[in-house]
Amino acid sequence: MLHWGLNFASLPFCNAEADWMLCMVLTAVFILPAIHLGRRWLRTYMFKLAGSKARRYPTKGFWEILNVYSAVNGIHYLMLAFDYLSRPDSDSSGTMADYFVPHATTTWLSVLGFGIFLPPLALFVFGQQVIFGFLVRRIDSMYYAKDGGFLAELFMAREFEIGDVYWVQSMTLQRLLLQIDSPVPEQVYRREWCPGVIISLNDDITMQAIVKVEGIEMTVAGLRNTLTLEEILDSNAIRCVAWEKLTLESMMNYNSKTSDEIDDYELSRPLGKGKHIDFFISHSWRDNAEVKWECLMHCAESFFKARGRYPTFWIDKFCLQQGSQAACGLKMLCKCITTCDKILLLCGPTFPRRLWCAWEIFTSFAFQAEAQALERVLLIPMDVKNDTEGVMQSKALLALERFDVNKATCYDPNDELAMKNIISVVGRSDFNGYVRRMARSVRYHMAHAHRRKKTREIDVFIRG
């Protein structure tokens, strides 16, 4: 705008023939697209979650500004070329085109104009989501890979509206019904969670709601998260557990309510400032603990041979507080994942159906190119058996090849809804494709393992 404004103002003082009408058209060509695309830039966000805080990629804003610049300059040079062609040769020495680009040729102007106009043309053909989505996945990937707080903020920022489904624990509903001397329906005893509908909202700081469940109206408080991610991290520091602290016995049971769980948490230690954890362990506690222990042992020994020390791990049982603090710890799970250098996916029979396991994989893939994410992730099937031809097979791996995040579940239906909404916004079909391709790749390597030198993939993964 400054460039054209100065040229527009200086034309009356030049000896060149001034085409005032063309100058006004060119100036309008600058102003109108800038206003229109500028409004779209300010209003457009990469994530639009109903009731959640929207957040825009910094790289996306940069490329939208560059798009405006390219569009305006492309039109500028194309119109100069048109003006140069439309003037008679006898007048060419004094035309405005000669004034601005005295040594330019028609070919040079046309090629330059078309070349600069390619970015907005690609945007028009392929669409904003494809072009800008590609750019942010490639350029912003490292930024968000190191900042797992972004997904944590999305997970924490869920809002509710009247008519939304809200799930209530059956035990809570039973206590309420007993207090008012009302009979407890049989289905309440059979379920762990009962679906209700929000019929009223009190939009205060914590957001209270009246939920109608099984014909009973009950008040639910604290639907809105009042803590920031920084406050949660202050009270729930990211922790790691050293290999030397782990035993098979400590890995055997997760649901125990004995005092041993407190001791398990005390086996871990806070992560130092600026430090990283070697491995994040993604697994299902319903799968075989002894097989998981064998995988961890081999990982630790391979790491020791390669690095001269034993690794540190992030394992939920040891690094998350239990009881009332567990919910806050789960909210910062994304931050914990991106603090780890490598991610081990211990895939047993129940792993493909566990939504928290899927969420851990999703955090690894969400803002990185697929090849870049796979450098940090190793999938280890835990139920490998040799068939009659000596080829290794895994039912868990076959299930992962047909993975669909919509079929995965977790204990709390409210958490399940929040996670699936975020995954759908970022790209549910893309995520399903990532997981399936990863599983197919592992099965391919297993099928050809007997033909190659017997070097376990985990050794290569650790050395890499």
TrEMBL record:
Species in which this protein is naturally found: Octactis speculum
Entries under Gene3D superfamilies matching the protein: Toll/interleukin-1 receptor homology (TIR) domain (3.40.50.10140)
The protein, known as: TIR domain-containing protein
Positions of transmembrane segments: 20-42, 62-82, 108-136
InterPro entries: Toll_tir_struct_dom_sf
Record key words, sorted: Membrane, Transmembrane, Transmembrane helix
